[in-house]
Each structure stands twice: as C-alpha cells, then as structure tokens.
Amino acid sequence: MTPRMDNPSLVVPGALQPLLDLSEVIGKVGIPQATLDLIRLRVSEINGRDWTLVDRAGLANGADDRLPLVATWRTETVFSDAERAALAMAEAVTLMADPQDMASDEVWEECARYFNDEQLGALLMHVGLVNMWNRVNIASNQAPAAWR
Fold first, then answer.
1. Distances, alpha carbon 143 to alpha carbons 20, 41, 49, 94, 101, in Å
2. Angle made by CA atoms 50, 53, 59, in degrees to the nearest 5
3. Chain segment 17-46, per-residue pLDDT in tens
4. Is the pTM for the entire model greater than 0.85?
5. Would the pLDDT of 58 be above 70?
6. Rg (CA), the chain
7. 87 contacts 73 by C-beta, under 8 angstroms
8. Hey, is 143 helix, strand or coil?
C-alpha cells in the first residue's frame, strides 16, 4: 500500500507538537506507561491500524511481552484488574456501539475503582488521541508503524 500523502501531522504546519504535548500531559497523571501502551495497541487493533511488534530480542530489551496477547485480554491471566478495566473502557469508547451510552455505568464504575478523575480523564483523552492517530494514518495509507 502506497501512502496517499506524507503523514498529515507533518504536512499541516504546527499540528504535530500539540499532539505530542497532549501525549506528554496524559503520561504525567499516574497511569502506568504499560497500561497506556496496552490501550494504544488494543485501540489500534480494533481500528485496523497495523503495528510491527518487536521481535524476541526487542522483548528482551524491555518491550512488554504481553503486547501480542492484548487482543485476548479477557481470557489471559497476565493482565491486572486495573489494566482490564482500562482495556474495557478503551474498547467501549472506540467501538461506540451505542453512542448514547458508549461506556456503560458498569464499565465506568469498574474503571473508576482503579483510576481517579484526573486519570480517567487522561485515559479517555488517550483513547481519543489514539483513535485520531489511527484514523489519520489509515485514511492516508501510512505504512504500519514499528512499536517503539
């Protein structure tokens, strides 16, 4: 697949830095980076945005070896209850099966057991930002990204 254009975040003057700044702010509210990474990958999977995950050598160098399991998080035992709650929220917000109630009270309350309001807000913004990146990259046919 050939990109339709250079990455839009680079084409639109001044667009990239505010997005990076928002990512930085989200990362400072106390949600573990591993949880944010799991959400990023799961939301991307739902949206059809491909990532090239690191190989075994990369996993040995610090990448989360649970990443290949994130699509099956409901049945895997390697995810914490807080990560499961965050993944459930990420799926609910991304899938938007019922826009009037995209995150049911049950999903919200479970997530709120593990995250305070500031963290919940950041989690929601993270899901929204990942969805935005996915849609921009998919629509413009960007190549699959290599996982950092």
1. 20, 16, 9, 22, 34
2. 165
3. 999 999 999 999 999 999 999 999 999 999
4. yes
5. no
6. 16
7. yes
8. coil
Beta bridge partners of 51: 145
Question: How many C-beta atoms surround the C-beta of residue 90 within 10 A?
Answer: 29
Cα atoms found within 13 Å of the Cα of residue 80, Cβ hemisphere only: 10
CB contact set of 113 (below 8 Å; sequence gap of 6+): 81, 85
Question: 145: part of which helix (H) or strand (E)?
Answer: strand 145-146
| Beta-carbon-side half-sphere exposure of residue 25 (alpha carbons within 13 Å) | 13
Candidates 89, 111, 140; CA nearest to 132 is 140
Instruction: Give the span between the Cα atoms of 85 and 35, in whole angstroms.
Output: 10
Comparing C-alpha atoms, which of 61, 103, 102 is closest to residue 85?
A: 103
Query: 44 exposed, middle or buried (CB, 10 Å; 0-12, 13-18, 19+)?
Result: buried
- Beta strand 145-146 with 51-52 is parallel
Please check whether residue 119 is in contact with residue 78, taking contact to mean a CB–CB distance below 8 angstroms: no
